[in-house]
Amino acid sequence: MALTIDQITAASYPEVLTAMRKPANQWAEHALLRAMQKAKGIEYKPFGPTLEETLDYRRNPDGAFMANDMSDVSNNKTEVLTAASYAVGQLAVPITWSEGDEVKNPTENQKVALVKSLLSNAIETHDDLVEEAMFGTVTQGFLGFQNLLPDSGEGAPGGIDAATEVWWKHPIGVYAADGSDIESALGTAYDSAIKGSGSTLKPNLIFGGVAPFELYMASLQSMQRFVNTSEADGGYTTVAFREIPVIFSHFGNDRLYGISTKSTRLVISNDANRKMLDKIQLPTKVAWNRKLYSAMQLLTNNKSRNFVLTKGAVIP
User: Fold this and answer.
1) How many whole angstroms separate alpha carbon 172 and alpha carbon 149?
2) What global pTM score does this model have?
3) Cα-Cα end-to-end distance for the chain
4) What pLDDT, on a 0 to 100 scale, did the predictor assign at position 89?
């Protein structure tokens, strides 16, 4: 008796997923995800109802130099914010097939080819949606960088309002529309984020869309600093700013982000990472459905160590 599409799906999915997770294939068509993985900016861990991030830094507001050895010192109860709290983002990709597909693909080889096509498409769609969402605003609870690092430098990711808690603000800047000052703008934002020479917690990845990447490339001219020599044969796709990789994604826009992956990460659930859920029959249909499901969130425990540059107006 020939196997059904569902049986082949159950048997084939681990193999397809394993192949997709090989270093050469993992995030193969998704520049930001690939760069974050390489920079250790993707973490896999168990989830709870919310994601609690212990804050990397928050100064005690009552600390002060003493005028003399008998000066009063504040007796206020020390209330230092200890954690940022993030909701869990959820992503599902449906895989639906009909009884007609079973009939039209009667042999096992036909069914295997159909199933592998469906599974590969589902995984690629899943990863595409993640990268697209990271460049956007909030997507049904999943934060994009426009929410995590808004153009104003403020915002309230993790439940901490940077308009009130100014230590939570991240550096912002503007580069000229023609890119003439883009290297200088990056330098100012970067230096503001590292908060002093010798800092160990600093941005280690810069990314944006095609347009700002090309402006930065043009600004370097003969002093271009390429990184990742393994990409040389096909033409370099990564340049550097102070030894930091600068990459672009087709989902990017006119913004340039700089992040420290020690404090800002994409966190994915150990238990729900491209997980294949059970088959169900669709009501009133001669068809079945399974869903590829993941739980994840983009979060930070030190927003001030990141930065964003926006494009300035065109000067006539």
Assistant:
1) 9
2) 0.84
3) 74
4) 96
